Amino acid sequence: MDTHYSIESLREIAGDDEDFMAVVAQTFLDEIPPDLAALEEAVSNNNKDLAYQFAHKMKPNFEMFGLGLEKDITTIETWTKTSKSVTAILENVEKVVSTVTTVIEELKRDFDIQ
Question: pTM for the complete prediction?
Fold first, then answer.
C-alpha cells in the first residue's frame, strides 16, 4: 500500500524491530499533531520566533519518516528570519499540514493505533 512516509526509513532507524517501529510511530502521533497546530497558529499570528521553533523541532521527524518536506520546512524556517508577509509561505505551510495529516492517518492504520 502506498504511503506518504518511508517505511524503509523507519525500518532502518528501528533496526527492523517491529515493536520499536510501533513505538516510534506512536511517538510521532503523540508529538507532531500539537506541534503542527502550534506552527499553524504561530504562522497565522505572524509569530516568527515561535514558528521557527516548531518548524525546527519537527524537521528531524519529517526527515526520519522520509516525508519529503525538507524544502518546505526549511522555507518556513528561512521566512522567520525575513520581513516577508505570511502569504510568502502559506503554500509551504499548507503542503506540510496536508502531508502530515495524511501521514498521521496512515501511521494509525499501518500500526493499528487509535
Answer: 0.94
